[in-house]
Amino acid sequence: MRVRNAGVPHRRAWASYRQVVLGFLVWLSLAGQPESPTAAAATSPQDSTWKAGVAAVAITPPQPMWMAGYAARTKPSEGKVHDLHAKALALADADGTQLVIVTLDLIGIDRQMRKWVVSEVNRRFGLGAESLLINASHTHCGPVLRQTRYSIYGDSLYGLTPEQIEHCRKYSDHLQHQIANLVGEALDALTPAQVTYTHARAGFAMNRRLRTEHGWRISPNPDGPVDHDVPVLRVSGTDGKLRAVLFGYACHGTTLSFYQFCGDYAGFAQEYLEQAHPGTTALFVAGCGGDQNPYPRGKERALELCRQHGRALANAVEAALQGPPKPVEGPLRMALREITLEFAEPPTRDTLQEQAKSNNRYERQHAEFLLAELDRNGAIQTTYPYPIQVVQFGGDLTLVALAGEVVVDYALRLKQELAGPVVWVAGYCNDVFGYVPSVRVLTEGGYEGGGAMRYTPLPGPFAPSVEQRIVKTVHELAHQVRTGK
Fold first, then answer.
1. Alpha-carbon distance 203 to 311, whole Å?
2. Which of 145, 268, 386, 464 is most exposed, with minimal Cβ within 10 Å?
């Protein structure tokens, strides 16, 4: 009896103790788990800091068109793998300052199209030029845009047929209206949001400049400089649900070279991310990939390899989304400046007349074009107006937007020299006119160092001052947006 009576309070004490232990274990297990999106949103101090809006539209041509990127193509497009898209991410800070980033599954846009879009969105929405950033993925499986007097495309000596040129003109005119409307839709969709930054890595990009006994050739160079960083800007609603993911990578869009419209690896990466996150808009920003190619590549398995590269990039974004996010706060500050880049001394008339006899169609066409310019104007163009844009997100993130096909040296240098907040360097922004070499690449020569100029109406190559002028201006604009002075 004494043992039984003594055992009752003992069992009660043990039950109470067990409840405490179990409760502690449950609390410990929950404490070790990532905070739920809803809980994170409820406790986040950013709830009233940002507003964000996204919009997207398919921009696949409705009819066959000549395709951009490869001069060797001999016929118009033949269908599509998937749609090409234009997408817009609008952001507004607590003071109402607005930024719109537009991404395009295209080889690029020129300064004339950007100028039209800037004027239109300013007239309709009051958005300034410094507040609009347009980036192209540089896929080589999109359409040729509006043609000028100089064209490398087509089966006639000087480019496309009149009918093909008219297709390009109509498509380009419609496209610029689509972009302007898209900006308005993204601005109309502005609602409270959270913005964070994270990053990961993807390894399929490789430097494509290989030194050989015959000079620098486009070929895999595993020892050349690369930038495998995958920067990711995550935009969520106040409920924590992912609304948009803006991500970048420095690599040419050249896995594919066939006759179907396709966004290349970047198009597949966006597609995979949107499939994995229903209701989310994925936007790709091309980095400084002027001298980077996706490897492996090859015509036999091109589409399969392209999907693999797209999956690799999407997986990198997914890994970044699982990592610890860095809160991004305001205010937004933007700066845009156009500088003058100098070309090397242009060739003489005698030199051009000799080049005009070349058996190489593109060298001959380039020389004839410059001779006509010399006859018409009395001189050959010696400078190029080059836009540089810098966006500052509070003290957390600096986004540098460079025009043209910028080689990787710029990203590596600027990320080191501007160190402080996170630095994201994009190429192919606002005006895609040709290659922008560093001094190293310019000195080495080869395709990106000046050889590609024969495919453009520019005299080329650039003068050695090109890198110093760009980097100096980026530093000045970064100081301006970081300090407000």
1. 12
2. 464
pLDDT given at position 154: 59
Asked whether 46 and 194 are in contact (CB, 8 A), the reply is yes
Question: What Cα–Cα distance (Å) separates residue 165 from each residue in 66, 80, 81, 148, 192?
Answer: 9, 21, 24, 9, 44
- The residues, any chain, with a CB within 8 Å of residue 23's CB and separated by 6 or more, are none
The number of domains in the chain is 2
| Residue bearing tokens 């940002």 | 50
pTM: 0.89
Q: Looking at the predicted structure, is the pLDDT value of residue 1 above 80?
A: no
Structure tokens at 331: 């205010």
Residues whose CB is less than 8 angstroms from the CB of residue 325 and which lie 6 or more positions away in sequence, other chains included: 196, 197, 198, 234
Closest CA to 389 of 353, 461, 339: 339
**Tens digits of per-residue pLDDT, 285-305?**
999 999 999 999 988 899 999
Give yes or no for a contact between 246 and 235, defined as CB atoms under 8 angstroms apart: yes
Q: What is the pLDDT of residue 158?
A: 46
Helix (H, G, I), strand (E, B) or coil at 78: coil
Q: Grade residue 3 by pLDDT with cuts at 50, 70 and 90.
A: very low
Bond before 231 cis per omega within 30 degrees: no
* Sheet hosting strand 422-426, strand order edge to edge: 332-342, 383-393, 397-402, 422-426
Establish if 409 belongs to a structural domain.
yes
Residues 109-126, mean pLDDT to the nearest whole number: 97
Q: Look-up: residue for tokens 């496209």?
A: 175
**In which element (H, E) is residue 368 found?**
helix 361-377
Mean pLDDT lowest among 350-354, 407-411, 456-460, 477-481: 456-460
Strand pairing report for 405-406 and 435-436: parallel
Tell me the CA distances in angstroms from 172 to 109, 115, 118, 143, one per residue in order. Answer: 9, 13, 15, 10
Q: Which amino acid is at 368?
A: E
Residue 485 resides in a domain: no
Domain of 404 in residue numbering reads as 50-336+385-440
